[in-house]
Specification:
The chain contains 5 helices and 8 strands. By secondary structure, the protein is α/β, with parallel strands linked by helices. The protein folds into 2 domains: 66 residues, 2,3-Dihydroxybiphenyl 1,2-Dioxygenase, domain 1; 61 residues, 2,3-Dihydroxybiphenyl 1,2-Dioxygenase, domain 1, CATH 3.10.180. The chain has a 4-stranded mixed β-sheet. Strand 7 and strand 8 form a beta hairpin. The longest helix is centred in the N-terminal third of the chain and has 10 residues.
Length: 138
């Protein structure tokens, strides 16, 4: 199969600044936030590894002329699973330090590695918009 990986996904946000602060506390790189804040870009992104999540602030996703998005995408529609390279203990501590309340876990899960058969341990939390975030440790 010639498809290798995701490059990026996109999600809307109701509160861009809260989202930026939350993901910064988790260690994500925020791309384009200053350009967005100064009106030189209409959106910003959350980057990690070779991936990113483009974030559409309200003026973007509320604009009926903006059609390059899921037609029902509203803040809180995301459900993301991130691979954590450290231990479950490190992840638990990082989530606590970031004020990200664990809503489930650690629990055993089957992830996407090894053609969807690799087993790992996951913890779940939510971001300020209510998007579900799963962090899996293989």
């Amino acid at each position: 199969m010639p498809i290798q990986a995701f490059d990026h996904v996109a999600m809307p946000t109701a509160d861009p600044e809260a989202l930026i602060a939350f993901y910064q506390r988790l260690g994500f790189t925020i791309v384009g936030a200053e350009e967005w804040r100064h009106g030189r870009a209409r959106a910003f992104a959350l980057a990690f590894g070779d991936n990113k999540i483009n974030v559409h602030p309200p003026p973007v996703w509320q604009d009926p002329a903006f059609t390059l998005r899921g037609p029902a995408a509203l803040p809180g529609c995301g459900d993301f699973c991130f691979v954590w390279a450290g231990t479950v203990e490190d992840l638990t501590r990082t989530l606590a330090d970031a004020e990200a309340r664990v809503i489930e876990g650690p629990v055993p899960r089957v992830g996407g590695r090894d053609t969807g058969s690799a087993r790992g341990t996951s913890l779940y939390t939510r971001d300020p918009d209510g998007n579900l975030l799963e962090f899996i440790v293989y």
